[in-house]
Structures are given as structure tokens and as C-alpha cells.
Amino acid sequence: NQNHITRLEITPTLIKTITSLGFRKSIIVSQYLSMLIITGEYYHNNILADLHKAFPNALIINRYGSSEIS
After folding, report:
1. Which of 36, 27, 38, 37 is nearest to 55 (CA)?
2. pLDDT in tens, 9-20
């Protein structure tokens, strides 16, 4: 039985590194990923188009700044 990643909490810097190295077809970018949480750093909205392409089945949540408003 194979384990699949379904939720991933990640910083924009790490996303840029992963996508720039061509890991779009890696294990973390699969049909099993249902939620992508971006946290820890500000990111520009232009990254969203790339994220939707890389993670087509994932709900993308921006949690940057959540500690400041809670």
C-alpha cells in the first residue's frame, strides 16, 4: 500500500524551488493532493496561475498573516 500526500503546508520560497527544479510531476504534485496551504511568507498573486497548473485538484489556501489577525 502506497502513502499519498493529500495536504501540504508550504512556503512560497519552497514552492518556487520545487517548480523551478521541474518537480511538477513528483510525488507531492499528484492527483491525491487535495489541499495546498501557503504560509509563512508573502507571495505575489502571479504565482497562483502556476500553482493551479501544478496542483490542478488542490484547494489553495493563503494563510499568510493568520497569526496577526487571530
Report:
1. 36
2. 988 888 878 777
Count of CB atoms situated within 10 Å of the CB of 20 = 8
Q: How far apart are CA 41 and CA 33, in angstroms?
A: 21
Q: Judge if pTM exceeds 0.85.
A: no
Q: What is the DSSP string of 2-48?
A: -----EEEE-HHHHHHHHHTTGGGSTTSSTT--EEEE-SS---TTHH
Distance of CA 5 to the CA centre of its chain: 12
